Amino acid sequence: MSFDRQSLGYRLTVPSFIIIAVVFTALTFIIYKISHTIQEDYSRFSLSAVNSEVRKTLSATASELTAANISGNPVVTEAMQKSVKEALSLIWSRLGHDGVIATADGSLFFSTLPKDRAQAIIATGKTGYYIANGSANSYQCYAERFPLWGWRVVSVGRDTKSLMDRSSAALLLPLVSLGILLMISGIFLVLRKTLRRPVEIMVSTVKSGEKVAVTGLTEFDIIGSAVNDALERLHEREAALENELRERVRAEKELRERDAHIQRLLSCTEEGIYGIDPDGNCTFCNLSCLKLLGYEHESQLLGVNMHNLIHHSYPDGTAYSNHECRVYLAFRGETNVHVDSEVFWRADGSSFPVEYWSHTVYEDNRVSGAVVTFIDISQRKLLEDQLIQAQKMESIGRLAGGIAHDFNNLLTPIKGYAEFLLQDLAEDNAAATKVERVLKAANRAQTLVQQLLSFSRKQILEMKVIDLNQTIKSFHDIMRRTIRENITIRLFLSDQGYGIRADKNQIEQVLMNLVVNAQDAIGERGEITIETAYVLLDDEYASNHTEVTPGRFLMLAVSDNGCGMDKETRQRIFEPFFTTKGIGKGTGLGLATVYGIVRQHGGNIWVYSEPGKGTTFKVYFPIVDDQLAYEQPALPEEVPLPVDRLNILVVEDNEMVRTMVDELLTRRGYEVLSTEFPQEALQMVNGKPLDLLIADVVMPVMTGPELHAKLLNNYPGLKVLYMSGYTSNVIVHQGVLDEGIHYIQKPFAVTEFAKKVEALLKT
Q: Modified residue 4-aspartylphosphate is at which positions (predicted)?
């Protein structure tokens, strides 16, 4: 049988030992008190008897002492006192005590003790039995008054062994201790013999799970029977619990696997998903929800009111009430909700546009909340804005191209007839000055129309593979003379040259417009930076920027440290006639022209600007690997006047342009046939000689190239000169003139037109 704090032997033996120890302590205390009382009574009796002997001696010698005092003989008196002291000392010594005699005034008369001890004993002034405390010991004393002389006689007990110290009394303690020890041993042996075996049997059988055997003790057999019944029921319950546990483990495993699978699916989605209870508090969130909202752990959302956390305000910052929140309609109105454009707020306080769906969640046929699925539509909104902007620019471009075409048809006869007048008028004629002003206005109108054509990407480009770095360097001096002296122009060009297919004059116009725009944004002193760099635009960049094709590009960046622009201005800067300058300080076509030229070159342009932080325009031109073209110095043209009268067919649907061209060619000595309709032109030349066809590109029913193709059947090798305000894609593709095509842009000067015709006839 084990012996620990929880064992039966411990619980029986230890309390018994404690009780015995208490009894032993009580008996020892009682014996001590009895012996102390006996000792004190003995001391009082013995001291009283000693004092009685002393009093008898004093009484016997009193007459002699008195006679000696009366005789007045000091020698006799001293001898008598000495005799009395010796008698008293003998009495106290014989009886094993000490003594002290004090006179009536309290002074020490005689003592068998040292003076200091005697003084301590007589200092109390008590009579009868008392305890006097000295500096180191205490003394048992018995004091009486001797009435004849008023002396105070004190008998003092010497140190004697107490009753407990005496051998007869000291035997009591070991005997009591031995008796108690025997009692404890007997109890322990009885308990061990009586309880150990039955207890060990019960413990071993309970541990092994077997039935408890009969012990022969009635109480233990009753307990064993109860234990056996309990063990039997326990085995039955254990078997049932094992089956239930196996089933529960299997179900929990399946549930965990299913939950883990669902969690993996939800964590792999791009959509943020969270659940809320009817109070709006979060009950679930997936990984995408945490990432989109800028949180690190789901504990930051669980139990938190989601409306107050992420949906509390409109985009402009005004409060968004709980009652207006459409997320809650899912369980308030028991209807599914889809919102295609609202904002959620991130942990850092920023907002982002979202599209979300809120669906009702039912539990036990009652609404228990809602589940919300949302996506970040920032990129979609950006692409939509870019697409709308591109569509708007395309629409404006088509409008600008159409207007430019009509303006060119009007400006062509204006310029032509003005030049005729100048040729007919004398140089000193006052009217000539007025005609020159008309020509100057027409030229300014032509420049304006040309800018519109550039924006609408309808102008004709002379495309060559050029080195952009070289173009910038050669154009630097012109830019330096154009820009104010208090503005610094810095060049940071790429170390390696890259070729781009471009019209050099158009690229220079882009540079000039960008640096002039930067100059206007700078107040007094400032800096303009022109930079080129090789960049690789990947699929991610292209997905965030409409009309961008991934590939290799040469970036041209023009930056300034001027006033910058806000978002509303940035969205409109490429629109024709939009300007932030004062009235009369700009046409609003500079950046529109840049936009059109860049797009016509197959490039892209983006602006980055903030108020007070300056502006950067980044232009991306596709890099080509073709051989760079080097310009040859132009040789002066010598166009001789025609010797023979040549035949020219003019087909132009605009009457004013046609009439002016007819008159110009006639004055130059050509035989001219002119008509408005291509079908009529085919009939007019039937059988007649024909040296040149001058035709508009775009005409009703039949285009200029189609007419030329029909004429080639009867006039092989017939030369043709096309003229138009813009050409659509008939002879020009992506703004580049088809190879071998001769073309003149409306409006044109008569001298330029004449040279073009004469050069063409000469070839």
A: 696
